[in-house]
Amino acid sequence: MAFSSKTHTSFAFSILFLFYLCTSTFAATDTISRIQPLSGNTTAISKDGNFELGFFSPGNNGNFYVGIWFRTISIRTVIWVANRDAPVSSASSPELKISEDGNLVLSNSLGASKWSSNSTRYLSSSTIAILHDNGNLILRDQDNSHNVFWQSFDHPTDTVLSGQWFGMNKITGEYQNRVSWKDQEDPSPGPFSFHADQITLSQYVSLWNRSKVYWRSGNWTGKAFTSIPGMPVKSEYRYDLINNTSELKFRWTTMDVSKITRIILSINGQLQRHTWSHDSEQWIQEWSLPAAMCDVYSVCGPFGVCKTGFRPVSSRRWDHGAWSQGCERETNILCADSNKPTDRKQDDAFLKITSIKISRNPILVKVQSMEECRSICLNNCTCTAYALINYCNVWNGELRDLKELSNGNTDGFDVYVRLAATDPLIQDHEKPARHARRIMLLVVPSSVFMVLCAIAVIYQIFQRMTSTQKASTSDVSLIVYDYSILRHCTNNFSHKLGQGSFGSVFRGLLPGSKPIAVKKLQGMRQGEKQFQTEVRALGRIHHTNLVHLVGFCLRGAERLLVYDFMVNGSLDSHLFGDMNILDWNTRFQVILGVAKGLNYLHDECLECIIHCDIKPENVLLDADFSPKVADFGLAKLMDRNYSRALTTMRGTIGYLAPEWIGGLPITPKADVYSYGMMLFEIISGRRNTELMENGSASYFPVWAAMKISKGGICEILDHRLHDANFQELERACKVACSCIQDNEAHRPTMQQIVQILQGNQDVDLAPVPLFLQGLVEGEYSSSSIHNITAE
Ligand SMILES: *[C@@H]1O[C@H](CO)[C@@H](O)[C@H](O)[C@H]1NC(C)=O
Ligand SMILES: *[C@@H]1O[C@H](CO)[C@@H](O)[C@H](O)[C@H]1NC(C)=O
Ligand SMILES: *[C@@H]1O[C@H](CO)[C@@H](O)[C@H](O)[C@H]1NC(C)=O
Ligand SMILES: *[C@@H]1O[C@H](CO)[C@@H](O)[C@H](O)[C@H]1NC(C)=O
Ligand SMILES: *[C@@H]1O[C@H](CO)[C@@H](O)[C@H](O)[C@H]1NC(C)=O
Ligand SMILES: *[C@@H]1O[C@H](CO)[C@@H](O)[C@H](O)[C@H]1NC(C)=O
Ligand SMILES: *[C@@H]1O[C@H](CO)[C@@H](O)[C@H](O)[C@H]1NC(C)=O
């Protein structure tokens, strides 16, 4: 390619010039030299054609970058970018060239340098840059290939390839750093980076904001990094690590040279290995670390659930899957408005976001109620959100790593996020209520009789809504349904899910394919009473372990309640039936979930709610087998100023606490008793009371309690289960025994039960209760047990 100095004739010059044009534009070259820069559509191609170097514009938005990409595959995949944070505005005039001092330089159309290889090593006047077939761009002496001044492999962007060393120089402290792209169209440095841990020198780490480590490779065992699963067994790759006094570096090499593969730090902070599939013409992801995207710190940025009250900071980025910039408020909170007098905290409201996995590091405050928790947050402008999970969890400043869980996942909680009360969203949330008001007015003239009751109910709901409107703008969102809509949704009440003394339950599908269960209450008086209780009890509360009342419908004397549909039906069908028995793990989750739901009812709502009818039939299971306590028709709402309530006996035999049978007033401990009874059934997979052929009843809990007191815990376990976590089983058994104590004072509270089940609190083994022993010994005959009927 060099000009011969002897050619002086214009003819010869023209020929050579043409030759030069041809080689630079059409014939592939792998070299950039002083006389052969790169610009416009020209590219350099490695000798065997594996890689290509040139200008590209990932967003087709006029921003051009110099990069290297795979040449033999159909999707342009860039493995290295030179000027990642200094794009040039067109590809035609800027040049990538060898500068006077021998560095590789990108200059824009005005000749200003936008990027330089910045090598300070001794550069010769005859420097060339060569693109190699392994994807490495090497700047070296033209005549001495060992005299390398700079190479792109030493300055990775987000990708490493087979054979590429990656590490650090222990003497100078210089280290290689892989930094994610901002998004798929923007190669500038994103928030995630990956490099050798310069402090311990023992592993590699992934960081957010160059500071927060969220993933570690684990130590090198000599063959593999301990936290990279499956690394040593893969024989398609060879791994080398050098760790001497001058450097630490690591590389992987594919054994099969035809395999096209790369490891990238993705825009969402995961290290991922992608291998090209020639058959399907696409990249196949082999693994990613951390495996779950949500384990990447701040992957969704501040306020990262961009759906309510918040919009993505950059919707373009968000749409391209780079979420780390997060979201911002659509309406500024008034608290933070420095132009206003300071005391405008009360003008903010909270929006409930359900089923959220809690983000990191809330401040925990011990509180008595939801209200107290809310007011702590409301009264501190730096507080952005709260949630009540045993303690009051308060977040200050930006909320990060909220994860919205799929419907029904029990790990989720309700988080209340601070918004301006004037935020359109808060206003929107009040709409169902206004809508309901309108419907109510339409109903009134049509049927005067029953509607008086209905008005009372609805009036109560609205009373609460208005009186606590600021306090719980989003707490109440019961929808009043039109009868014709429900009839349509349930296909004219054709798909019956179940039938009980209360009425029947039908399956339906709301517009938008939301599955629901519609309960039609039966019997004028009884139905009305259950309806009122249920709406009062469930209308204002929300908990992952309580069934969610979506709305209701009044039509003449008919009362309908609309719930979220629970795919897996009720617990009893999974315990006592022959099919689909639940494994121990699921059973324990059910045990814990129900306890949490009841704890919420007893201790965390405005009024204390005693469910009064805990039994497997009233525990529903969603798609993930997360339990939801259902059927509040018999519930007793108790003002917190009273500690016990006198109530007519209700509920179901076999689950009724002795004080109740004895006609004494009840407390939430009555639910604890029923819960304990249910525990025996969940553990053993058999009914507590089994009628013998001769008409007498065998009482399982007494036998079980005796077994447990003698250490025979495993004997009471459902014999169909092949294994169980012994510690969990032991805790569940101890809880069951203490729940069925005769004296309610000896029974634990639901809150204690949750603690015990979670292993945070110890409990002694309770004695076998006398009441039950009496039952067995015939003090109460079996027939008298069965004469106790539900109201
Ligand atoms: C580059 O190629 C495209 C199409 O192949 C052509 O439209 C464009 O004019 C070329 N640009 C330059 C600077 O040659
Ligand atoms: C090269 O050095 C200059 C001056 O020190 C600096 O501004 C520039 O960011 C460096 N470029 C690269 C690619 O490191
Ligand atoms: C490298 O050697 C240093 C010093 O011997 C040691 O502390 C470190 O753990 C080693 N790193 C790896 C990755 O083996
Ligand atoms: C990111 O790091 C910079 C510098 O270390 C720091 O100033 C900044 O506050 C950090 N950003 C966040 C959101 O933590
Ligand atoms: C990894 O190595 C470091 C330093 O050699 C040591 O302090 C640390 O305990 C090791 N970590 C594990 C998980 O073995
Ligand atoms: C460390 O290993 C590298 C690569 O094998 C080698 O070039 C270098 O000389 C070694 N340094 C020391 C101090 O042994
Ligand atoms: C608000 O909360 C922050 C963080 O917990 C705390 O430092 C500050 O003192 C609180 N301000 C008030 C007025 O309570």
UniProtKB/TrEMBL annotation:
Keywords: ATP-binding, Disulfide bond, EGF-like domain, Glycoprotein, Kinase, Membrane, Nucleotide-binding, Receptor, Serine/threonine-protein kinase, Signal, Transferase, Transmembrane, Transmembrane helix
Signal sequence residues: 1-27
Membrane topology qualifier: Single-pass type I membrane protein
Domain Protein kinase residues, every copy: 491-771
SUPFAM superfamilies registered for this protein in UniProt: alpha-D-mannose-specific plant lectins (SSF51110), Protein kinase-like (PK-like) (SSF56112)
Domain Apple: 335-420
InterPro entries registered for this protein in UniProt: Bulb-type_lectin_dom (IPR001480), Bulb-type_lectin_dom_sf (IPR036426), Kinase-like_dom_sf (IPR011009), Pan_app (IPR003609), Prot_kinase_dom (IPR000719), Protein_kinase_ATP_BS (IPR017441), S_locus_glycoprot_dom (IPR000858), Ser/Thr_kinase_AS (IPR008271)
Binding positions for ATP per the UniProt entry: K520
Enzyme superclass (EC): transferase
Keyword Kinase: yes
Primary site of residence: membrane
Cellular compartments annotated: Membrane
Pfam family, one: S_locus_glycop
Assigned protein family: Belongs to the protein kinase superfamily. Ser/Thr protein kinase family.
Name under which the protein is recorded: Receptor-like serine/threonine-protein kinase
Native organism: Eleusine coracana subsp. coracana
Higher taxonomy: Eukaryota, Viridiplantae, Streptophyta, Embryophyta, Tracheophyta
Gene: ga29609
